[in-house]
Amino acid sequence: GDLSPQPQIANSAVAQASLSGTSQPKGSFTLEVTARAAAQTLASTGFASGTSLVGSGTLTLRFGAISGATFTEDTGHAAVDIEIAAGATLTDVASAINGKNAGVTAYVANTVDGAKLVLKGAEGANNGFVLEATESPTDPGLAALAWNAASPAVPQRLLSSAADAAFKVDGLAMTASSNNVTDAIPGVTLKLTGTNVGAPTTITFGNPAAAITSAMQ
């Protein structure tokens, strides 16, 4: 518990560390973070407002890794269909996506270029996503929200790409799909908060003698 030797990181800007309870680590470790995990963020083109009609049909989220103009679908991550009813607005689409709890959150941002639907995925390279649209023949327009890796770069809609964290523990290269790392050091959970390329920091475990003495007294 609180009287165990707690992990301490010399460079607190790089990570936070806590005991996971699986074991009591000993000694010291070095940590070098070269990249933090990132989530994909995607924006639509601009609409007049959040109440603008978008057409109806089905939006489909497919998940996987994106490299340049290439999308490799993760077949183990099921695609998600979002039904969009006639008369739906941009705000309604955001609500429908959030209602699926599919790991992608949506909101409408009022920008200088108009109202935009913003989608944010989960951290990790395999949590990238594309958005497909199947329009209702009698109520078109939904295709304006669709996006794939080969879409033209202008206007720029991909605001950030999904990526894994990359780091070294004791000089050994590792990756993680999240900035919360539980298996790099036995008994320690790391929360990566920054990078320190070329300047490894040290993780040590404080002497709990003073805390134990205080508790005994």
Q: Please describe the biggest sheet, giving its number of strands, its sense, and whether it closes into a barrel.
A: 5 strands, antiparallel
Order of helices and strands: EEEEEEEHEEEEEEEEEH
Query: Average pLDDT across residues?
Result: 94
Discrete helix count: 2
Number of strands: 16
> Strands of the biggest beta sheet: in what spatial order?
1-16-3-12-13
The helix content, as a percent range, equals under 10%
- β-strand percent reads 35-45%
Poorly predicted runs are none
Radius of gyration: 23 Å
Description:
Helix content is 8%, strand content 43%. The chain is built from two helices and 16 strands. A hairpin with a 2-residue loop joins strand 8 and strand 9. The two termini are 18 Å apart.
Summarize the structure in short.
The chain has 217 residues and is mostly beta strands.
Secondary structure elements and pairings:
Layout: E1 7-9, E2 15-19, E3 29-35, E4 39-43, E5 57-67, E6 70-73, E7 80-84, H1 90-99, E8 105-111, E9 114-123, E10 128-135, E11 158-160, E12 165-169, E13 172-176, E14 180-185, E15 188-192, E16 201-205, H2 209-216
Antiparallel strand pairs: 1-16, 2-15, 3-12, 3-16, 4-9, 4-11, 5-6, 5-7, 5-10, 8-9, 12-13, 14-15
